[in-house]
Amino acid sequence: MRVIKDGRAVADDWQHLDDQTPLGPGPCTVSAKRWLAERDALSGRAAAVGVRLSGGDDVAAIAADCASLGLVVVEFPALADGRGFSLARLLRERYGYRGELRACGQFIRDQVFFLSRVGVDAFQCGENDDPADILSALQEFSVKYQACTDQPQPLYRQHRRGG
Hints:
Blueprint: E1 2-5, E2 8-11, E3 15-16, E4 28-31, H1 32-43, E5 49-53, E6 71-76, H2 83-94, E7 100-105, H3 109-117, E8 122-124, H4 131-138
Parallel strand pairs: 3-4, 4-5, 5-6, 6-7, 7-8
Antiparallel strand pairs: 1-2, 1-8
């Protein structure tokens, strides 16, 4: 699977496990439900562990663990489900998550730039997605008027030089 990260397409080195699959030796992600049930065992692993969040998950339940998570995947189960935007922004702004924050699932090109504004810094490409298309969507707007995680002050409050 391909992932867009740091402005380029890279291979996905993470295993994304369901709740019944035993852990392998490498880095893996688990559901928020599994993380909460097996937190002590998972946080003691030598390999990195990440958490997958869906719109119905309570992000506050994993907030205390943010510093130890190597990856948080925000799942978009349907195009009409925008709760992932809120999850991403909460993770970055309220809970101070600084690791990789990845969007996966049913997001579209038109949402990529706006997902980056709320803190998503990686995008898991679907089977039919063109990584070049996602990369170009990240550069589509040159000016950002509103404040967000990537620009804390709105444009009108930024210091202007010259005159």
